[in-house]
Write a structure and sequence with these properties.
The chain is an alpha+beta fold. Helix content is 35%, strand content 17%. Helix 1 crosses helix 4 and helix 2 crosses helix 3.
């Protein structure tokens, strides 16, 4: 009787493997993991061509070879035994990408500690959303550009960085300096025109509004984007002439609250700078965006006629 094959530990590397010969597919996996910081095996299977079994097997080999890491805090957000395995890149994985001329972040993400479970959950949702935008762009025959892709048009990119800037806003009667760091950023080339987008994935953890300008809130975030547009600092720093902010919420009730708070930040109660939709619609391939005012649902992508 054949003995059952013993499963390798999920979070402990095994040295029982022969040296790993990296393929182009492996490098593609490392690039995608590095770009999104944290991904799970389901993300990779949907983004890369090939069988689920093959990609899952290669993820295991890359982990045991030391090119990927598996944060244990993922057990706090998806305790099921058959859940997707979350991974992030290691220093060794980044070294491989740099050897091949690909940009990387200054250091790999921190994968230790139970306190990062909430942050991990949010980051995985952002990855869901960004990959959904890529799929929609491909279906519309539009060119999807990550930040390093559009920067290559004007300069050599050797290091990935998070989009971040500081801006002074007027919050009620107080002026305050605050930082803006979108959850995601991308550009879209369609019909001979390039558009820039920032992504805000709302998980319902940030208060919609607060009485103090010194505390974070969605309203303060809207005012910061509005001040950024008025000041034109993104054109000076990144050659971004204009942009839209795409807000993705988890429920209809939350979406209404966010739209109402945003509407109060504009004199006419509406602005096309902010576009809102539900995560369930976006992830299922539906396009039904709304402004913060009364404008009816519209599409951002130029869908080809069937």
């Amino acid at each position: 009787m054949q003995k059952p094959r013993l499963r390798k530990p999920r979070f402990i590397r095994s040295d029982g493997f022969p040296p790993l010969h990296l393929t182009e597919r492996d490098v593609g996996i490392l690039r995608l993991v590095e770009r999104h910081r944290f991904v799970h095996s389901g993300h990779l299977c949907s983004a890369l061509a090939g069988s689920v079994q093959h990609i899952t097997r290669r993820l295991g080999r890359l982990f045991h070879a030391g090119f990927l890491d598996r944060p244990k805090s993922q057990l706090l957000i998806q305790p099921r035994a058959n859940a997707y395995m979350v991974c992030c890149i290691t220093n060794a994985g980044q070294a491989i990408l740099r050897e091949r001329g690909f940009p990387t972040f200054a250091s790999p993400p921190r994968a230790r500690g139970e306190t990062m479970a909430l942050s991990l959950s949010h980051t995985l949702r952002v990855t869901d959303v960004m990959l959904a935008f890529e799929r929609t762009a491909a279906a519309c025959e539009a060119r999807f550009l990550h930040r390093e892709d559009w920067q290559k048009d004007s300069e050599e990119v050797s290091r990935l960085t998070l989009m971040r800037w500081n801006i002074t806003i007027q919050y009620d009667a107080k002026r305050v300096r605050c930082a803006v760091m979108p959850d995601g950023a991308f550009a879209l080339d369609q019909k001979g025109k390039r558009s820039f987008f920032f992504v805000e994935v709302d998980r319902g953890t940030m208060p919609v509004s607060r009485g103090s300008a010194d505390q974070t809130s969605f309203r303060r975030k809207v005012l910061a984007y509005k001040a950024t547009r008025d000041a034109g600092i993104l054109w000076k720093r990144h050659a971004i002439p204009g942009f839209r902010v795409l807000v993705i919420a988890e429920s209809e009730r939350r979406l209404r609250s966010l739209r109402s708070a945003a509407a109060a930040c504009f004199q006419r109660g509406d602005s096309t700078m902010l576009c809102f939709t539900l995560a369930s619609k976006l992830l299922s391939g539906q396009e039904a965006w709304q402004t913060c005012g009364e404008r009816s649902a519209f599409q951002l992508f130029a869908h080809p006629r069937s």
